[in-house]
Amino acid sequence: MYDFTTVASGLRFPEGPVAMSDGSVTLVEIAAGRVTRVQPDGSTETVAEPGGGPNGLALGPDGKLYCCNNGGFRYAELGDLLIPHGQPDDYSGGRIERIDLSTGHVETLYKDGDFGCTLRGPNDLVFDAHGGFWFTDHGKNRERTRDITGIFYARADGGSLCEVIFPSENPNGIGLSPDGRCLYAAETYTCRLRAYDVLAPGEVDTTPALGGPGVPLYRPGGYKFFDSLAVEENGNICVATIGECGISVVSPEGELVEFVPTDDPFTTNICFGGEDMRDAYITLSGTGRLVKCRWPRPGLRLAHQ
């Protein structure tokens, strides 16, 4: 049912794919510290070199790219796999960056300490219909410690940053329901998909529940870890799944719709594009590939796509 075609290979831990209107895909190469544009024929060009660890990407209301920069990773190589491995000695700090697609200019929009917030390893982001964006901070791992982090809301003009949800266990992927009334966040090591009721821009229902605020929507068995996510037009949540690798498709009610297997244990991101929003692009980060397939259902068109 799923016929994967390799669009590009030889990438250095690709993540954060953004389907562009011209058929290209812009993504990050975390291990190379750069943002890369992949053309339909597989050719690549460097958009910008922010350094550190560029991670999640999204197009903003001004047509620029907004980038979660995690500050960098150590890496280990196991056969053909490139594996992130903790906080590096040259860790450059967590930050949100704005990138001009035409010039490659990189501007730091928010950094650690701004508005009293702690940013350790920003990971993924999604814009809402009001011009602001939600983002996760996955934190950094060290030999015997791991950061406790949260989920943030920020204005695109650099004028406001707020930690809305704290604590959150190693949050990674983030997305919004088609009506914008539900915020989804995927936790990596706990392998939970959580849902939060959105009350207003930058505000969710944080009524305490067992395990913290929000509803634990879905958690699979087996050797699985959640990474980034994308939402289908019908409201299903597609979560990139590491370990027993593939895409876990979860209904808004918390039921597994299907599991789409891949061949890379570091299957990290999925995004949708094309005229009918059924072109699915998936980053197979461990082996450095961007692959494409036709999805049976259209993806949700993002706020500024």
From TrEMBL:
It comes from the Bacteria. InterPro entries: 6-blade_b-propeller_TolB-like, SGL, SMP-30/CGR1_Lactonase. It comes from Sphingomonas lenta. Gene3D superfamilies: TolB, C-terminal domain. This is Gluconolaconase. Residues 13-284 form the SMP-30/Gluconolactonase/LRE-like region domain.
